[in-house]
Amino acid sequence: MRRTVTLVAIGMVAAATPLLLGPVAEAVQQEDRPVRQAQQPVESGTMEIGTVEDVGKTLSYLTSAEQTLRYPGSKYVKVHFSRLDLLPEDYITVSSPDGSESHRIEAADAPRWSTSITGDTAVVELHTAGGVVSDVMSRYGVEVDKVARGFTDTELAEERESHRRTESICGGDDQQDAVCYESDEPEVYDNASPVARLLIGGTTLCTAFRVGEDNRMLTNNHCFETTAQARDTEVWFDYACRECGGEEVRDVVKVNGDEVLDTDFTYDYTLFTVDDFAKIEEFGHLTLSDRKSRQGEKLYIPQHPSGAPSQIAMVSDADGGACRVDDPAFDGYAADSDVSYYCDTEFGSSGSPVLSRDTHEVIALHHFGGCPNSGVRSDILLDRIGSML
């Protein structure tokens, strides 16, 4: 059986409805929550980015100790275990065929998801400490009931084309691979490193970034809002092209979300931690600005639009050649809560940092499309979460 999964994307709705780009966007429908007073029609909808497929494979102490799950052309394979009955010293690995990526799972409560494997094939293997094998061990073993697998290039292209809109790509699409700025704009390039791609529940995409020196990540409330959701979220660092305009992607560093420290609907933020901070410290961090932005101030946005490898929006043909602040006090869910701009964004860009070209500080947390697009002001965020950074 195949079940389609989705990434919140773009589709026309009434002018008073915000454009949200994450899995809890349905919360907007609650009557007791504020409604954004949009200045023009905006969009909301869905875009497929993968499927969940039933598997029904067993790894047994008495029979098969290895299963290979292959989905030709898929971007990732994420394995779900419905049963994990292991002896104390035994464990499971989920690996790429060449072993370059491998994730270890020891005895744990099931059901649960593994960390995804980049590429179209995952090898699931039961590792045992050895000893006598007897019939009593028939009650032990592992069951894989389903996988989440990413769409192929062809499927992704078809989906992106069928959902393509101009309301968040303002004019032509001026985004470029982050690596394109490595030589000419080294500080801009470096500030894409703390920006991560989120894979939420194996199916849904947003963006997040390291904020401050400690174990702190920031994304949108409409991407996720609970610790349970955070722990079901993969945080991908260094998901970026090796060359400008190239196809080859760097080796991705994956950690999992851990604890939600604070979240808020009106200002659309979620502050959370990851489970293995030491693995991502090398990617650096960004700083929230404590000031209100200036009209006309030049901007750039490192992001993962449509879940793509790291992109930067810095040029804007819709705004005189450079991304810049259109309105430093734009109405979001609250009056004057946002900064608006015509920098290009897409599905999956929710949770991206909007940075000043002058100071390289974060002046907004991107969350809405509609041309102008907008993000929550950093000075407001700092007042609310500064003591936790």
Provide an overview of this structure.
- Residues 1-27 form the signal peptide.
- It holds the Pfam family Trypsin_2.
- With 389 residues, the protein is mainly beta.
- The protein has 2 domains: 51-153, Sandwich (Jelly Rolls); 167-389, Beta Barrel (Thrombin, subunit H), CATH 2.40.10.120.
- It is 7% helix and 39% strand.
- The protein has helices at 153-162, 186-190, 227-231, 378-385, and strands at residues 2-12, 43-60, 66-70, 76-85, 91-95, 102-106, 112-113, 117-118, 121-127, 141-150, 176-177, 195-200, 204-210, 217-219, 233-237, 253-264, 269-274, 299-303, 311-313, 325-330, 338-341, 353-356, 362-368, 373-377.
- It has an 8-stranded antiparallel beta sheet.
- Strand 23 (362-368) and strand 24 (373-377) form a beta hairpin.
- It is elongated.
CATH topology of the largest domain: Thrombin, subunit H
- Judging by the overall fold, what is the CATH architecture of the largest domain? Beta Barrel
Number of domains: 2
Number of helices: 4
Main sheet specs? 8 strands, antiparallel
Keywords:
Jelly Rolls, 24 strands, 389 residues, disordered N terminus, 39% strand, elongated, mainly beta, eight-stranded antiparallel β-sheet, Thrombin, subunit H
SSE inventory with pairings:
Blueprint: E1 2-12, E2 43-60, E3 66-70, E4 76-85, E5 91-95, E6 102-106, E7 112-113, E8 117-118, E9 121-127, E10 141-150, H1 153-162, E11 176-177, H2 186-190, E12 195-200, E13 204-210, E14 217-219, H3 227-231, E15 233-237, E16 253-264, E17 269-274, E18 299-303, E19 311-313, E20 325-330, E21 338-341, E22 353-356, E23 362-368, E24 373-377, H4 378-385
Antiparallel strand pairs: 1-2, 2-10, 3-9, 4-7, 4-8, 4-10, 5-6, 5-9, 11-19, 12-13, 12-15, 13-14, 14-17, 15-16, 16-17, 18-19, 18-22, 20-21, 21-24, 22-23, 23-24
